[in-house]
Amino acid sequence: MIALIQRVHRARVQVAGDTVGEIAQGLLVLVCAQPADGEAQAVKLVDKLLKLRVFSDEAGKMNRSVQDVGGGLLIVSQFTLAADTSGGNRPSFTGAAPAELGRQLYGRVLQLARERHPQVAAGIFGADMQVELVNDGPVTIPMHIA
Fold first, then answer.
1. Domain boundaries in the chain?
2. What is the model's pTM?
3. pLDDT tens across 73-86, in order?
4. N or C: which end of the chain has fewer CB within 10 A?
5. Catalytic one of 80, 111, 130, 140
6. How are beta strands 18-23 and 62-64 bridged, if at all?
7. Catalytic residue from among 41, 55, 79, 125
8. CATH for the stretch 2-144
9. Does residue 55 carry a catalytic annotation?
10. Is the Cα dihedral 120, 12, 53, 108 positive or negative?
11. How far is CA 48 from the centre of its chain?
């Protein structure tokens, strides 16, 4: 799985003008499943998200997790994270999982996150979404879960 994690003051995702997911302070997580991904990658991703120490402590060091600060998770599917631009000017997305596998793994990530964290919002798989955020820092971390 590929994830792009952004520490945010607030974020929301809209579909057709309606807000479908929104958080205050927390992590906006863009997620892309790849063809070889399965349950193990979904579990590892959620484990990492909940423990990732990217929020500042009293000394200003990134030493707190989203759980430590009581922040939210906004998890949005984004197959374009698997873009390959090496072959020209039009990206190839063959590195992304087929739609059904992507939908299944995105759903599993959401399920695991909701079982373990009280504030989880989401986009809609496959929808044309508009994502708004106020990046805090800015802190943006790419992650590859093998």
1. 2-144
2. 0.96
3. 999 999 999 999 99
4. C
5. 80
6. unpaired
7. 79
8. 3.50.80.10
9. no
10. positive
11. 11
